[in-house]
From TrEMBL:
Residues 57-104, 859-906 form the F-box domain. Coiled coil: none annotated. This is F-box domain-containing protein. Gene3D superfamilies: 1.20.1280.50. It comes from Auricularia subglabra (strain TFB-10046 / SS5) (White-rot fungus). Residues 1300-1319 are annotated as: Disordered. InterPro entries: F-box-like_dom_sf (IPR036047), F-box_dom (IPR001810). PANTHER family: AT02038P-RELATED, F-BOX/TPR REPEAT PROTEIN POF3.
Amino acid sequence: MSFAVHDEALRASLRRSFLARSDGVTESAKLGPIVDELKEASYSLLLELVAEWKLENVTIHRLPEEVLALCFALLPFRDRVSASHVSCNWRRISLSYPAIWAHIELGDSLINNTALFKMALGRSGNHPIDIVHGLTFDTDGVIEDSVMTHIHHIRTISYSTTPRPALLSQAAPMLEVLHGSGEHLHIASDFLGGQVGRLRSLHAQIGSFAARCPALGTLTDIAIHVPATAQGAEHFRHLFRFCPVLEVLVLLRLPIALAPFIPTGPAPASLRSVMMESCDAGFDLTAHCAAWQLASRSDITIFQNATAGEDLALIISGALSIDVRHISNSPTSVITALGPGSRRRVIEEHDDPHSLAAVMQRVRSTLADVQALSVPATSLPAFMDVFAVLPELKHLTINLHDDRTAAQSHISWLPWNLLTPLARLPGLRPGLQTLILNVVWRGPQDPPSRRDALDLTAHLRRLMHVGLPPILVKGFAAETLHNLPVPEFPGFLVHFVDQGLFPPACPVLSTVTSLSLDGPSSAESAPTFRHLFRLFSALQSLTLCHLLSQYSQFLPDGPVPASLRRLVLESEHNHYDLSEHYAHWHSQNLSDVGICQFTGPTRHVSQFLSGAVELIIRREHPFGPWKSLIAVCPEGRRRALDFHDAGYDMQRLAETVSSVQTALSDVRSINISAVALSDFVPVIAVLPKLTHLTVTVKPDDNSRDGRNFRWHDLASLAHLPASRPELQSIAIKVVCGKESCTPNASDARALFLHLEAVEPSGLPDIMVKGFPPESVLGIEISQLDGFKVAFETNCGSVNRGIEASTDGVAAPASDLEPMLLSLAHGVTDASQISDTYQELGSAAARILCDLVQKWSIGNDSSRCFPDEVLAAIFDVVPVRDRLVVSHVCRRWRSVALAHPAIWADIYELPRCKDGLALVLMALSRTGKYPVQLSLSTDCDGAPELLSALKNHMDHIEQLSWGPGCESMPLTTPAPLLSEIQGVSLDVPSDFLGGQVSTLTKIYMVQFYLPATCPALSTVTSLELHGPLSEDAAENYDKLFTLFPRLEYLRISLLHGDLADTLPTGPAPRTLQDLYLEGIEYDDYDLMQHYTAWKTDDNLQNVTFAQDCCEIADLGALIGGAVKLVIGEEDDTNRTQIAASGCDGWSRAIGFQDLEDGHAAYVAEMIFDVRESLPDLHTLEIEAAYLAAFLPLCDSWPKLTHLALSVLPAIGDEPAYDWAPLRCLSHVRQHSQSIVAIVIDVKMGPPSADDARTMLAHLSLCDVADILIKGFSNAVIANVETPDDFLTGLGIRFARDEDTHSNMDAGTLPDSGWDDDAPV
């Protein structure tokens, strides 16, 4: 019968039910439960009716035996054995169909493996058998004898212990796969009976090959460890003759001594995939691949400890994409060549960038098709000439890697200077389309910083006139790039892909209601978190991630804002209990609390669980032993604790919960993982109001297919009637995260059988959830004597008792039942009744969707939003979306036009053909509201934009522009303008109307100055590049006259031949921060400007960066310092001298290293100015400088602290040179004032032998306090030096937990010693 005649009746019934339930509802969010309730009621009835029909018309007994046998064959081995003991009929079928036992996987969890294995083989008849999961041959030979008996029909053998030769000498006509991980397998001439069979895959450790072996003639896949001796490898050279149809070849641990025995070419034509590996130095495997003539093969992988020669062409020939990587701290390169098609070639070899680049140039004829190339930044100079020989190269990726140690994480680390060779790129490869700078750091704890991003843009300024392709910068976190000023360069575009410290006060933050951020990550940012709750006084939701225990004291003490409802805390630190913060912040208003940590609950469990009416206990295993403890309280309040603690098992958690039973007096429901049920039975017994229990069952994580559900964990249900007789209901919820392991009918039957084992126990009725409808509708479920079991599917329950909802409004049962009965009349095919069920269910869902849509149209709540609320919402959407919402409807358009604040932040949309028109439209809507405007269009070619800017300059607050905007209307008065950024600016004398303005910040690449300009007199921050010519430098000598209030000045890329164009007189008294940088390869001493500009009360913080190492009047820069730090700058070939004074000033100068005698040269520089350092009490240098600096110590009578950094020599195996520490035995000959020495070992880890060698050198040093840092606790423990010996020498090792701590407070001066400063 057609369903169409029933549609109107069903619609009318559902409409009545929907209107009855939605009466009085005013929020659309509340419709969800109503619709779900109607769906569940409808589906529940349909499921029950279908189940009743199937019980009357389909039974398991009507299935043919062949179908049952096929079902049994799909079960895991354990369940097949169980099925053979269910009934006489099932046992007869199990014994009559050998195919059921064709797949044998014993596993380690089965008892009596040997007996079960022998039983399964006995039931297999002559059917092909697959033995998997690493068969272990027992010592008494039972398993081996069984295999030998059935070897004639075994198809697969996977073993973990090598069988005796007698077994493998038997004929095995059906054997196709032989995989093993045991001892060496000797391939004799009688291997597998000496006959050609079906063997196609062999994975093993080979001990020897016979001269002939017919059984190998059918192999297509071979993965072997080659024979270890020449005698065993004698016939290995004939491998291709043994295996003429080989397709996949894997050769592991190839020794160079056996090179003469490696097969000679050509390889079989069928060979398509090759992998070779050798750890022997100098063994080039590419030569063998070339001899095998593998040029057309699609997959080649080589791992070798040798340099590939001309045969590298075999790997890279014809590739479309090549990726070159260098393994850190190792002379190893990995070259990956992809294309054409699916071809993939990989080689890991031992070489250096220059030799690799030279080889690639010699074989350039094979690289004609390369379109994409990726190389490390360290290899860029070597590969510049390679770029020139790649005619089709379109995309170039430069990878910049983090090579810092953990102790260097606070310094700027990326070697941006390695990008200097890019200046040659346009001439070598003019057709390049994209250039990607990929920044790769060590891990999430040490990402590149905002300073790194600014340093990158500063380095790119050096290339700004080079015609580079667009540059994409990857690797910076989004929060790092937020509001990052990215200048426009005339030669190319730069785009950061993927684009909080808190101030003491900020009224804007007081309206924030939702906040999600990482916890403090540095000592500088941590203290500002104390003000979190004061700054965000209206907070409703707070999420703090990646919290670090060392900064826990900086989190706010509380109380939390009264408005806070949701709190989420997360930490990955061991032994950091976040519930401490919850206890301090506890508020009755908190309705949703989530804590995720790596330690078990401790002291605050009672407060966390107090008032709960439902308790949820979980144990998850996706990434380790995660456990969850969730308390659900009245009025929807919820508190969840997730923790990962291997030492905190479920039994201990149960004991912890049981110890706070008074806090659980109101618990009425428990939801618990089945694996934890047995441990929590005592907890269930002490909960006086508990009436409902839900047990969650998941698959065993160790099962092969993820479908082995742990039904046996339900056995503990038998203890519940005695411990909790008041229990009213039990639900078993089956959960599986993957579609491939959805529970099926077999799982339903297995569950029912396990519940039978609990009987008779007087349990309450059990509802089983989580099974799809098709898995339970066709099975027979008999009721148990002690309790009833019902299955509820994902669509609803088969129990007709839930046909009425809780509010008494009947579900549409009176309409659905006659419809289904009418449609099912005369149907005998179960598939037809399922289609009918789906048709009725889909119709009900469709009708409910129509009803909800009509309700939404009549109850649009956005109409009641005030205009101000809508305007505030529009204000936070992107510019493009602001334009969209202004065209949605008349009211939204009127709001968008009536509130100028919506358009206060204007930027030109990238890749938008109407971007200029949209900017003009947005600008016209701003009224007189302060505007921040950013332009990238060529303004000189857009007169309408220039005209609009002139009309709006009176309320523009910030203005930035790109290249081609030299005609900006900046002679117009701009009373609100505070900041300008651009590429080039020629300042006229009537700049900003020739009046004193509010301008405070200027960031410009090229800056041309007038003789006079009143508008510049208010600027406090100025950043620019040095002039490029004398014409461009005109009036630079008047810089301080034009900018009398300057506080911060940064001039980059200064040319020495234009030094006389800068001011010669003193700088303004307000100028406190100065940064000057010279160009490379220029003997330009920047100190001349310091001596000319310095007064008594300016230039507190000074940094110079130059190549010139002849520094005039160094004493003027560092004189009066109490702390002196001498070490590497950001480049390994540069040295920085940094000084700081007791009143907080800091000054530094960096210069180029000398090739020879650099330490002595630096010491001589300091010797010449030693008398200007009478108050010096702290000296930090590298250990290599010690011999040169020690004689200077007697010049400083107040010197009390000496810090030495020890770095390893760079090489194949980095090693430490401890010899410089011998000089410490002469400390007292040069200084009687030194009381403490710190030796900081960098770039570890140093070994115990290093510690012993170092102590031997320190044994003669008579300084009373020596602190050694950089050794791990494990290494210190292995030194085996008596504590009294170290105490007698005054030597202490800093433990891991003290890595960031200073020396004892009593041994340090009050000022000057900064343990975290770079050494």
